[in-house]
Amino acid sequence: MTSIAFIGLGHMGGPMAANLVKAGHDVRGFDLAAPSLELARQNGVATYPSLSETVSGAGTVITMLPAGKHVISVWQELMDAVSAGTLLIDCSTIDIDSARDAHALAAAKGCPALDAPVSGGTGGAAAGTLTFMVGGAAGVFALARPIFEAMGRKIIHCGDASAGQAAKICNNMILGISMIAVGEAFVLGEKLGLSHQALYDVASVSSGQCWSLTTYCPVPGPVPTSPANNAYEPGFAAGLMLKDLKLSQTAAQTTGAATPLGAMAAQLYQRFADEGVGEKDFSGIINMLRDKPDT
Ligand code: NAD
């Protein structure tokens, strides 16, 4: 089995690389942050002082980085460090243009490539239960599937280059909008004297049912495992939701798609983040809706 080089060993990349080790892969890792490297070493990842040493001889390189500019910068550096034929996979959530640029870099070098963003958060990364949404040629997807299976449970081929990022951006736009919708319904219910539990009992088995209600209920009580029961500790931080909503709005502007609710959701999450609570779970936006209705 050829080795896998993993670049970006943060909250997501760290546990993902650890799961590749657990599955029996020879994993090499690189990150700019010393604490991430140390943790990776403890999990059985071999670390190197530079990107080029990390990827040298690896059959596959995976990147899990904050944003498009980091991915492009690392992939440009990779082009001098890997040989043609090396499988390149980016699992970061990034803008569509950067994803396409990354595919173009790989094609020019003769490297098969996939965009493969994930959902499932840090819990899913640790448990190896992530969902991978993958863009790229079908043959390359088939080649990479066993690698994804070591880190995830659902692996979906969405189409050609950048289709994985497109699916991720669209899914998270639904999520951002639906969380605001559920929050608004609970706030209106409160004003009408309706208990949280009664609204939950009805909506969770009626046409208002959705993930934001039944898995991530934004009020404490009805779903004991939701972040609302833990002072809105993430979970999925509001700042990350804002990042993904901004990506959806960039894509909407580029393509001319009408996404008025997506635009409004991005504005509301921007305001939430501006209040200094971007580190809190994104479901905490209900408190802004309740306490500052004029915002
Ligand atoms: P993170 O900030 O914890 O990790 C990113 C890592 O990349 C950091 O350790 C950083 O040091 C490293 N890095 C940055 N530039 C680098 C470079 N040039 N070379 C090597 N390492 C570099 O972020 P995260 O939470 O792990 O998220 C990573 C990606 O996954 C993001 O695109 C994010 O949107 C996406 N994502 C995150 C979650 C989540 O719940 N955290 C869920 C789904 C998707």
Features:
Rossmann fold, 9 strands, 53% helix, branched-chain amino acid catabolism, six-stranded parallel β-sheet, alpha/beta, three-stranded mixed β-sheet, single chain, binds nicotinamide-adenine-dinucleotide, N-(1-d-carboxylethyl)-l-norvaline Dehydrogenase, domain 2, 3-hydroxyisobutyrate dehydrogenase activity, 13 helices, 295 residues, 2 domains
Would you kindly provide a written description of the structure presented here, covering whatever features stand out?
The active site is at 168. It comes from Rhizobium subbaraonis. Helices cover 53% and strands 13% of the residues. The protein contains 13 helices and nine strands. It has helices at 13-22, 34-42, 51-55, 68-81, 96-109, 121-127, 138-149, 163-191, 196-203, 211-214, 238-255, 260-277, 285-291, and strands spanning 4-7, 27-30, 46-47, 60-63, 87-90, 113-115, 118-119, 130-135, 152-159. The strands form two sheets. A six-stranded parallel beta sheet has the order 3-2-1-4-5-6, sandwiched between helices. The protein has a three-stranded mixed beta sheet with strand order 7-8-9. α8 (163-191) packs across α12 and α8 (163-191) runs parallel beside α13. The longest helix has 29 residues, at 163-191. It is elongated and about 65 Å long. The site of nicotinamide-adenine-dinucleotide has 27 residues, from α4, β7, α6 and α11.
